[in-house]
Design brief:
Layout (H helix, E strand, L loop, with lengths): L2 H16 L6 H12 L7 E5 L6 E5 L12 H14 L5 E7 L5 H6 L1 H23 L5 E9 L5 E10 L1 E4 L4 E4 L8 H18 L15 E5 L4 H8 L12 E4 L3 E7 L6 E7 H9 L10 E5 L6 H12 L18 E2 L6 E8 L3
Antiparallel strand pairs: 1-2, 1-14, 3-5, 3-8, 4-5, 4-12, 6-7, 9-10, 10-11, 13-14
Organism: Vibrio thalassae
GO molecular function, one term: DNA binding
Pfam families: Y2_Tnp (PF04986), Zn_Tnp_IS91 (PF14319)
């Protein structure tokens, strides 16, 4: 059982009593799902081994994307899909961050703010690419909402393939290995366009004290696979793994995080209720897609991606990546004979 879920189960009433006005419907829905996860309330799956005729019944998981016990296969499926899209080129990681003065927007209108972040960041990258040369970019954007200390810190990590594809001439334009765009210029345009979008949005506003300089980081990350693996860690699971919760006392919780500059482990201790709220504030609104592909990496451009792979690999065979990628199925080994078991049914409580 997850340590976080056990803490949530023990302190649920106290949490709802003390922070009732800070728990939005999405947080409450996530709490209910996690408390049902792998219990009789969620239901059971029936497994059968054809080799030794062993039967077994296992509690079902909740499937919530913020549950620390679930979504292992979802994460691996996404990572496998992204790996099949990798090109034999260098990649860049562009990180668009928001100043902490905009955190109230993330608390009161998270869906509107995060949608706006995706729209503006993708528009900025496309406009920079259009000014430099002909051809379309291909990139994947992932929303993260927390800092290393697990404080609220919305930002977008965007993996960009180094190069452009000109669909009219079916030509790949190779990019520089060390340079994509100027980070300071990106930051200026990012700030200006996002503030303009906030002014135009009916649900959002611009708080006072907005700094004049924002931060956009742009760096080369090699062939791209390490960056994808980094992004997948917090994609479909809780923001804090159980292994990083190192001490649970009667009224406090201590967890660890790795400092960005020195890469050393640092401990942080919080009262239990504040710790639970710290983690729950990162529950995303229902229906918000936190991973999005653009350009020749989007789902509708599978044929285009196949042509690019042929150009870069120099192959003259059938186009790759044209068949839809199926999701992996849940499997289980028999505890008696170690053969693969089959799921023969699911029972849910009335």
């Amino acid at each position: 059982m997850s340590t976080f879920i056990e803490l949530l189960r023990t302190h649920k009433k106290a949490l709802e009593h003390q922070y009732a006005n800070q728990l939005n419907p999405d947080m409450r829905s996530a709490i209910q799902a996690m408390l049902r996860c792998k219990t009789e309330q969620q239901g059971r799956s029936q497994w059968y081994c054809a080799h030794c005729h062993h039967n077994d019944r296992l509690p079902l998981s909740c499937g919530h994307r913020h549950c620390p016990q679930c979504q292992h296969r979802t994460t691996s499926d996404w990572l496998n899909r992204q790996k099949q899209k990798l090109l034999p080129v260098h990649y860049f990681m562009v990180t668009f961050t928001l100043p902490h003065q905009l955190n109230p927007l993330a608390r009161h209108a998270p869906k509107a703010l995060y949608q706006t972040m995706f729209q503006v960041a993708s528009s900025v990258l496309k406009s920079f690419a259009k000014r430099q040369s002909k051809g379309a970019l291909g990139f994947t954007a992932v929303l993260h909402t927390h800092s290393r200390q697990r404080n609220l810190h919305p930002h977008l990590h965007i993996i960009v393939a180094g190069g452009r594809y000109d669909s009219s001439k079916q030509v790949w334009h190779k990019g520089s290995k060390q340079y994509l765009f100027n980070a300071f210029a990106l930051a200026k345009v990012w700030r200006a366009q996002l503030l303009h979008a906030l002014h135009q949005h009916p649900l959002l506003w611009v708080p006072g004290g907005i700094p004049s300089k924002w931060v956009v980081d742009c760096r080369c990350v090699g062939k791209g696979q390490p960056a994808l693996e980094y992004l997948s860690r917090y994609l479909y699971r809780g923001v804090l793994p159980d292994r990083d919760i190192i001490k649970v006392e009667e009224d406090s919780v201590t967890f660890r995080y790795k400092e960005s500059q020195t890469q050393q482990w640092i401990q942080r201790t919080l009262p239990t209720l504040k710790f639970l709220l710290l983690i729950l504030q990162h529950v995303l609104p229902k229906g918000l897609q936190r991973v999005r592909d653009y350009g020749f990496l989007r789902g509708q451009a599978r044929q285009t991606l196949g042509r690019i792979q042929l150009l870069l690999l120099g192959l003259f065979c059938s186009l790759p990546n044209l068949e839809p990628i199926t999701k992996s199925k849940a499997t289980r080994c028999c505890p008696c004979c170690q053969h693969e078991m089959a799921c023969v049914g699911i029972t849910r409580p009335r």
